[in-house]
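Lecture 7 notes: from sequence to structure.

We start with a single chain of 102 residues. Read the sequence below before looking at the structure.
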Amino acid sequence: MTHITAIANNKGGVSKTQVTCQLAAALARAGRRVLVVDMDPQANATRRLGVEWDPSAPIPTMSEVIAAAQDGAGEAAVVACGWDTDVAPEGERIDVLPARFD
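Now the structure, written as tokens:
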């Protein structure tokens, strides 16, 4: 069963990123697979979930997915959560469609 939850607010500083990452971790601990889609141009959820941007080895982000305007474009941009699974094993069940701060 798939469930979609959106966490949005146009005001900054209202804990959208914190709620998103904590909800993802809680669902993953409960055995659910989670995909966090980061639409924030500041890429805070992406960074908090351990996905690092390396200009020498760029990865597709939501910017490229939106620009592609094609069905399935997001599939190629999904990356694994970057959490150390020895410390946070729930990271194995979390994937991220990242944003990039630029």
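The helical segments are 16-29, 44-48, 62-68. Keep this in mind for problem set 3.
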